[in-house]
Amino acid sequence: MDLFEYQGKQYFARYGIPVSPGDAADTVEDAVAIAERIGYPVVVKAQVQVGGRGKAGGIKLADDAESVRLHADNILGMDIKGHVVRRLWIERASDIEEEYYASFTLDRSKKLHLGMLSAEGGVEIEAVPDDKIAKVWVDPTVGLTEARTRDWVAAANLNPRAVEGVVSILQKLYTCYIEGDATLAEINPLILRPDGSVHALDAKVSLDDAAFYRHEEVWGDFQGLEPIDEREREATEKDLQYVGLGGTVGIIANGAGLAMSTVDIVTQVGGAAANFLDIGGGANADRMADALTVINNDPSVKAIFINIFGGITRGDEIANGIVQAMQRVELKAPLVVRLDGTNAAEGHAILDANQSDLLIKQPDMLSAARKAVEIAAGG
Amino acid sequence: MAIWLTKDSKVVVQGLTGSQGRFYGLRNRDYGTNIVAGVNPKKAGEDVEGIPIYATVRDAVEQAGADVSFVIVPARFAADATLEAAAAGVKLVITVTEHIPAHDQARMYNTLKHEYPDVRLIGPNCAGILSPGQANVGFTPTEVAMAGPVGVVSRSGTLAYQALYELTAQGIGQSTCVGIGGDPVPGTSFIDTLAAFEKDPETKAIVLIGEIGGTAEEEAAEFIADNVKKPVVAYIAGVTAPPGKKMGHAGAIVTRGKGTAKAKMDALTAAGVKVAQNPTEIGGLVAESLA
User: Fold this and answer.
1) What SS3 class is residue A113?
2) A35: Cβ–Cβ under 8 A, 6 or more apart, which residues?
3) Cβ pair B190, B220 in contact under 8 A
4) CATH class for domain B10-122?
5) Whole-angstrom Cα distance, residue B4 to residue B157?
6) Residue A267 with chain B: CB contacts under 8 Å
7) N or C: which end of chain B has fewer CB within 10 A?
8) What confidence tens digit (pLDDT) does each residue in B148-163 have?
9) Domain B128-290 part of CATH 3.40.50.450
10) Between chains, do A211 and B106 touch, taking CB under 8 Å as contact?
11) Residue of A98, A186, A317, A346 with catalytic role
12) ipTM for this model
């Protein structure tokens, strides 16, 4: 789960990382009320999970109620790279002397946590030359000591006035990253103010969905605010792994790898997938029927490609699910089915006993992909 | 010959008394795997279809001679269960459990590295390991496999099954199929598995199945160029995956331009690996390599 800036700042605050006073607003009136309460000048910031908000006009400084009203009105509803702004974060404006970058993430290659610190903040970290980034690799069984943090900060050559504040924030950020089960905890920019204090001016936090059970109370509040694809929402409710794509061939496969491969092969033979959908290992008839319902509700789908290789998943269960779904919902697009692996023969027998014009079997993945693409193209 | 798991392996199932553990434990036993024990502190002294249950993995090691553990327990217990197996003296731990938090995975990996350096962890979030004709631990459907000269290593379960199927359809058998899993911190890497297949005298060719996310395939390519003489055929899933989206597996995500299928395919091709454009091509490319 990726947090919005305001959620990230609330999360930071739980771990003692200094952030500006502020609040979230969904309406112009709320924005003005918050600004009046925290005092001017304020910054009005679009809450979208995409970079380049500032350039797109989604971050504005306001000195009085009138300009808060103007900017809030402009920014709410604004489309920033396909993300519609539904919420604003209003915070007290900060005087900035210098901008730094700090983050923790997992280095999958070294299998250690990676801390990055740079004196060149406020820009995407990818744009910062590698020799300007001080890195520290942390073994989770050892942790990040204060002495190591100091060495790390020294390597980043920050303004000496910032050192104490940055050491303190990095220690807290590591705690937030570890105890908070984040897969990314990033502050960009981390600012030095004229009074010498150091402060998180932005927050980018990704939480590990697998750790939800440890944080239900806090993370529960973060859920449901992300403006996800309507199809994705429906699939998530049914506990299906779904990613919306832009094409016309609906995809249902078992296993993430096979589902990805199915999307690829549809593209290879000249089509475009409408979605990625993994019904998971051990899927039964109900799950198959759920998956078909989700895909069938997508108006852009012109053909549905069901690609199953039974391992944990049994072919007869899949076939029963297809038959049940065909009885339960009125299919808007034909099904192209490829079924191999565990109990495939039983599955084929079930499908053969329930023949329909909307049910087309194919012997392998490639021919099934071609057939689905041909149908989607109106052939 | 097979790598790591053979007909002589004695397997303890942590989770045998749960519904999933029972289903796969018994299925694996039916295939001929020597399942010697299950573990459940509350059910010690009982049995599951004749397989004795012990209170701890240590008891299973000492009393039943277990040297391999199959961990199939819920995610919140899986890291501890894996470490318990290592502490008990098991040398191969196969953890199939999905959704272990990433930080737990990192802690588990580094604890094993420091405290139990001779223990091999396969997984988590993997299909397990199958040595056709000898033993199977995990989910892999054995119907599509047969014994022979090809080593298979894959992050994805279903794509490994698909590869076994394509190979078997060509009349080409497999030495061992290793599912290293789809999580961000796998205990066993492509490189570990490639090195074992390279050393195994009966493995004549290797199939590597990767997917988007991380740089394990690029690292494997580098290793292959320097260390692997046997022919390698690869397939990478996720060519068309949108960036920033988790494609089912926790580890299958293109982050900030890193971990794309194209970068992996390019690296493997540069290392002399034949890269299949779709899973069906794997069988033919391996047949050519062995010809």
Assistant:
1) strand
2) A42, A62, A65, A68, A90
3) yes
4) alpha beta
5) 18
6) 239-240
7) C
8) 999 999 999 999 999 9
9) no
10) no
11) A186
12) 0.93
Spell out which residues of chain B touch residue A309, defining contact as CB-CB under 8 Å. Answer: 158, 161-162, 165
- Indicate which residues of B carry an active-site annotation: 249
Min Cα distance A268 → chain B (Å) is 9
For chain A, list the domains and their CATH numbers: 21-92 (3.30.1490.20), 98-220 (3.30.470.20), 230-376 (3.40.50.261)
Chain B: closest CA distance from residue A349 (Å): 18
Q: How far is CA A75 from CA A45, A62, A84, in A?
A: 8, 13, 9
Confirm if B160 and B130 have CB atoms less than 8 A apart.
Answer: no
Q: Which residue of A has its CA nearest to B211?
A: A257
The beta-carbon neighbor of B106 closest among A106, A278, A309 is: A106
Buried b / exposed e along B143-166 (16+ C-beta atoms within 10 A): bbbeebbbbbbbbbbbbbbbbbbb
A259 and B247 within 8 Å at the Cβ level: the answer is yes
* Residues of chain B above pLDDT 70, percent: 100
Q: What angle do CA A256, A261, A263 make, to 5 degrees?
A: 100
- Out of A11, A100, A101, A242, which one is annotated catalytic? A101
The model's pLDDT over B112-144, given as tens digits with 9 standing for 90+, comes to 999 999 999 999 999 999 999 999 999 999 989
Average pLDDT, chain B: 96
Half-sphere exposure of B45 (CA within 13 A, CB side): 1
Dihedral in degrees, nearest 10, Cα atoms A30, A36, A38, A41: 110
Boundaries of CATH 3.40.50.261 in chain B?
128-290
| DSSP code for B129 | E
Is it true that the peptide bond before B124 is cis, omega within 30 degrees of 0? yes
Tally Cβ neighbours within 10 Å of residue B242.
15
In contact, B221 and B268? CB cutoff 8 Å: yes
Chain B positions touching A216 (Cβ under 8 A) are none
* Residue extent(s) of CATH 3.40.50.720 domains in chain B: 10-122
Contact B36, B12 (CB under 8 A): yes
Residue of A nearest to B109 (CA): A111
The burial of B226, by beta-carbon neighbours within 10 Å (0-12 exposed, 13-18 middle, 19 or more buried), is given as exposed
* Average pLDDT, consecutive stretches of 10 residues, N- to C-terminus, chain A (379 residues): 94 97 96 97 93 90 97 95 92 96 96 97 89 97 97 97 98 98 97 96 95 94 70 85 93 94 96 94 81 92 94 84 88 94 90 93 94 91
Beta-carbon separation of A341 and B248 below 8 A: no
Interface of B with A in 39-78 (CB under 8 A): 75-76
pLDDT, tens only, A140-175: 999 999 999 999 999 999 999 999 999 999 999 999
- Phi-psi domain of B65 (left: phi exceeds 0; alpha: psi -120 through 50; beta: other): left
pTM of the predicted model, to two decimals? 0.93
In the prediction, which pLDDT does A233 show? 83
Question: To the nearest whole percent, how much of chain B has pLDDT over 90?
Answer: 91
Contact A257 B182 (CB under 8 A): yes
**Res A208: pLDDT:** 96
As given in the structure block, the two tokens for residue B179 are 């599912």
Contact B156 A126 (CB under 8 A): no
